[in-house]
Amino acid sequence: MAPQHLLLQSWAWAPSEASSPLFGDAATEQAVRNIDNTVFAPQRLLGASFESPWVQNHLKSGPPLIVRGEDGAALFKVRDRGRHRLVRPEEVLALLLEHLRRQVEQFTGVMVFGVVVTVPAQFGQRQRKALELACQEAQLKVLALVKAPTAAAIAFAVTNPMKGMRDVLVLDFGSSYCDFCVLTLNGMNIAERAIGSEFVDLDGVLLHYCVMDIQQRYGVDLSNQHQPLLRLRIACEEAKRKLSQWSQARVEMPDLFEGTNYTVCMSKNYFE
């Protein structure tokens, strides 16, 4: 597909100046102006209960509010055209999947009806059902749900064909989880021997570092100041991308708080 730097973990709920949701960079660019309606990483809340430690940690990210639904599920509380509305993570993800489908169809000229979806290794039955529901709402038939490290191993086996049996360690390090899998490859036959997973939040780690740095240098606590915190989170996400390629990245935020320009240099070695 054409490079558009789509940040698919970002989504905006029908801002007043637009007639349809925004995705990726378009959502991020309007997030500060539409802070109460911008949802980050909805897939992290799929099938999660409000009381789960992961959701409680997600609450620290600031608006939009995450509230407890009648069935105990975590829901987003947003303002849709002047009114509050509770939105299921599956509903957000369904809109995102519809956007992806249109992008693929426009690029390939082929109608998309079925999908194979990779999922984090730690996804349980409840989360898988929620993902399948999101695909159904996007009018996509789920052909298979494949664990992300297993999918990576399949791609490796296809692009690096070798004879004989070999053991492979696959590490899938995303923005919200880290999966690892030990596989035995024999041609195109793949057998899982061990698999594990752990939640991570790289954006949150970088954000926490900056918040603590600001508190130490300026004596200002931004943890409850949603607008500067959101600006800082977006800058940290950009820094994370740079650290994937380079050893250092600089966060520069003009007029972040009380007329103060904030600058900090981050090192890959420090966070590793």
Brief account:
This protein has 272 residues and is an alpha+beta fold.
List the helices and strands and how they pair.
Blueprint: E1 10-12, E2 22-23, H1 24-29, E3 38-40, H2 53-58, E4 65-68, E5 74-80, E6 83-87, H3 89-108, E7 114-119, H4 125-137, E8 141-147, H5 148-159, E9 165-173, E10 177-186, E11 189-199, H6 202-218, H7 226-243, E12 248-257, E13 260-267, H8 268-271
Parallel strand pairs: 7-8
Antiparallel strand pairs: 1-2, 1-3, 4-5, 5-6, 9-10, 10-11, 12-13
Helix pairs in contact: 3-4, 6-7
Describe this structure in words.
This protein is α+β, with helices and mostly antiparallel strands and 272 residues long. Helices cover 35% and strands 31% of the residues. It has a three-stranded antiparallel β-sheet with strand order 2-1-3. Strands 4-5-6 form a three-stranded antiparallel β-sheet. The protein has a three-stranded antiparallel β-sheet with strand order 9-10-11, with helices on one face. InterPro entries: ATPase_NBD, Hsp_70_fam. Keywords: ATP-binding, Nucleotide-binding.
Core attributes:
disordered N terminus, globular, 35% helix, 3-stranded antiparallel β-sheet, 4 domains, Nucleotidyltransferase, domain 5, 31% strand, single chain, alpha+beta, 272 residues, Defensin A-like
Structural class: alpha+beta
CATH topology description of the largest domain: Defensin A-like
Specify the number of helices.
8
The largest sheet, given as strand count, sense and whether it forms a barrel, is: 3 strands, antiparallel
Span of the ends, CA to CA:
32 Å
- Give the integer mean of the pLDDT values: 83
Helix content: 25-40%
Total number of distinct structural domains: 4
Q: How are helices and strands ordered from N to C?
A: EEHEHEEEHEHEHEEEHHEEH
Lateral arrangement of strands in the main beta sheet? 2-1-3
Global geometry: globular
Keywords: ATP-binding, Nucleotide-binding
GO molecular function, one term: ATP binding
InterPro entries: ATPase_NBD, Hsp_70_fam
